[in-house]
Amino acid sequence: MDINGKTKFAAILGNPVGHSLSPVMHNTFFQLLKMNYAYIPFEIDAEKLDKGVEGLWNLGFIGANITIPFKEKIIKYLVGISPEARLIGAVNTLVRKDNGFWGENTDGKGFLRALKQEKEFTPQGKRVVVLGAGGSARAVCITLALDGAEKITIVNRSLAKGKEIGRVIEKEIGVGAKIAGWEDKGLKTLIQEGELIVNTTPLGMKPNVMGLPPLNTQWLTKDQLVVDIIYSPLETRFLKEAAQQGCQTQNGLGMLINQGLLAFEKWTGVIPPAEEIRKILQKQLALEESNNRC
Ligand code: NAP
Fold it and tell me: Tens digit of pLDDT for each residue in 225-281?
């Protein structure tokens, strides 16, 4: 990559950012498309976030991604946010406008796009079960509800967090929500009602690859689509066990790629080559997995 006086810049702000695949993804897009842009990761302390955003603005950055733990905190430094980001309560993408940065959330839309592309699954009229009620669950649940899901059941350890997402889905979007705990007596029935089951907990994520959401995977049935938004490892224990039950399965790589593609489109107006990046990231993740086994 040649950086010169005409290079334009995008960034990711987070803490940590060392694990992020976004720099590889966006810099590869820029190279493949022969665009004179570069994407830089910045690890920043929470108390310097305002100065960081101001710095990006003053230096002419075209935009940025925001990752943990700043997706909510960033909002007060922006000139506005999209209605979807407002419902989700979090921003993962900044887009440069005339008077400051505008906030978007591409996580939920990235998840939906991946479902459509990989499984031709559309949420309209479908019953969905979401495991977990953290930041990504919020983006997934709200986007599924906006896209017409019939009912969303949220299973989480902290019921209060599940209830808060349920409140937004019911009151602000008008879609039915049910909240359950892992110990719920009726959990088996609730799980079996779902046409789509989505794990948004980090259980099973590297390095704790034996982790599993605390439910009996033998309850899963072959007519269900089971998605784990974890992408490292590419096939979690949850997905392996779901496949053994005959379920269709999907990992989190498509969501990761699509949230990035959507941000890239907003910054540049260009649609980048999705299949090429999938091969590159898959190779990188497989390499990391085999290095860990050595
Ligand atoms: P988060 O905000 O910290 O939420 C984690 C959720 O998992 C919480 O609801 C938490 O329950 C639950 N949980 C955590 N440990 C648990 C345990 N031991 N037992 C039961 N429940 C547990 O995290 P996040 O940002 O949503 O990320 C979650 C996962 O999604 C991570 O693996 C991340 O890598 C992945 N992710 C993937 C993508 C993608 O593009 N594919 C995007 C974003 C995130 P409580 O509410 O009770 O604490």
Answer: 999 999 999 999 999 999 999 999 999 999 999 999 999 999 999 999 888 899 999
Q: What is the pLDDT of residues 88-115, one digit of tens each?
A: 999 999 999 999 999 999 999 999 999 9
CA of 165 to the centre of ligand 1 (A): 14
H-helix segments, the chain? 22-32, 49-58, 83-88, 107-119, 135-146, 159-167, 187-193, 237-244, 253-268, 274-293
Q: Is this model's pTM higher than 0.90 or not?
A: yes
> Cα separation of 130 and 82, whole Å?
24
Q: Letter for the amino acid at 77? A: Y
Task: Specify the ligand 1 atom closest to the Cα of 182.
Answer: 20
Distance CA(103)–CA(101), nearest Å, equals 7
Q: Which atom of ligand 1 is nearest to the CA of 157?
A: 47
Sheet containing 225-228, strands listed edge to edge, beginning at the edge strand earlier in sequence: 176-180, 151-155, 127-131, 196-199, 225-228, 248-250
Choosing from 71, 109, 126, 178, the catalytic residue is: 71
Whether 71 is catalytic: yes
